[in-house]
Amino acid sequence: MPRRSIPPPAIAVNRPAANGTVIVSVPHAGRIYPPEILAAARVPREQLERLEDSWCDAIAARACGAGAVVVEALWARAVADCNRGEGQMAPGEVEASLHAQFSAPGRKERAGLGVVPTRLADCGPLWRRPLDRAALRWRLESLHRPYHAALAEELAAARDRYGQAVLIDLHSMPPIPAGQPGHGARIVVGDRFGATADGWLVDLAIEAAGTLDVPVARNQPYAGGHIVRTHGRPDRGIHAVQIEIDRSLYLTPDRMPDRAATARLAEWFADLVARAAQAGSDSLPLAAE
Questions:
Q1: How crowded is residue 270: how many other Cβ atoms within 10 Å of its Cβ?
Q2: Domain residues for 272?
Q3: What is the pTM of this model?
Q4: Using one digit for the tens of pLDDT, what is the confidence trace for 154-212?
Q5: How far is residue 186's CA from residue 110's CA, in Å, rounded to a whole number?
Q6: Strand 165-173, strand 238-246: pairing
Q7: Is the Cα dihedral 123, 129, 131, 134 positive or negative?
Q8: Quick check: is 155 in a domain?
Q9: Could you give the number of structural domains in the chain?
Q10: Rounded to an integer, what distance in angstroms lies between the CA atom of residue 89 and that of residue 109?
Q11: Nearest to 75 by CA among 25, 138, 26, 11
């Protein structure tokens, strides 16, 4: 009887030699497509790959060396979107027995970009049939829940050890179209309009982005998604920002990394991590005499 193959890990947690206050999240750059996902797909893999933050993990490649714990999704975003909440789906994308738990979809969910992506422009539905309860549970338990559990564990450990933790949630974005808020920006820093981080971290991220000599925006059009909203608790010493990087800054037209441009961004991001760790330490109150 043939042995059943062991699936590759869905996430990775890469720790530096000495942990600090910074945790980096890379939720959308995974390139592993489990057989179950490809079998369920109505479209070819190339269409599912459009969901990826292509090669965004390469920008975070030096973050661990700069002192950050890096939590990374290895399975593709097509399995489950770690930057959406478990309740973020449109009822029409799931079987009838699940409609009640997805009764208030927002704009993104109605467009098919819920906790499980279900549709894309120009290709229609991604899956052969609406998600049933077992398929949804498998996707959440395989990727989404372990990812958030790992983030929560690392953030709590950093906060408990140092009194403060910093979360940088790293994404890439297509160029922002004309007429949309933030048009022209190549880097967007999101803090949910001040809800997920104190000002020192946002100021530092915007100042660092400015060193790339490209336009920078705050919260427009990306204010931050489920990850920073869930884990960013400045009142509890956990500060979180989302950073979106225009893919044209580091990808070639065929969506492959430009080696020199990617290396430059990786160096820049490692410097941001180091500066955030130092600034976070400097912002802590002095112990009482």
A1: 21
A2: 11-35+52-82+140-281
A3: 0.94
A4: 999 999 999 999 999 999 999 999 989 999 999 999 999 999 999 999 999 999 999 99
A5: 27
A6: parallel
A7: negative
A8: yes
A9: 1
A10: 5
A11: 11
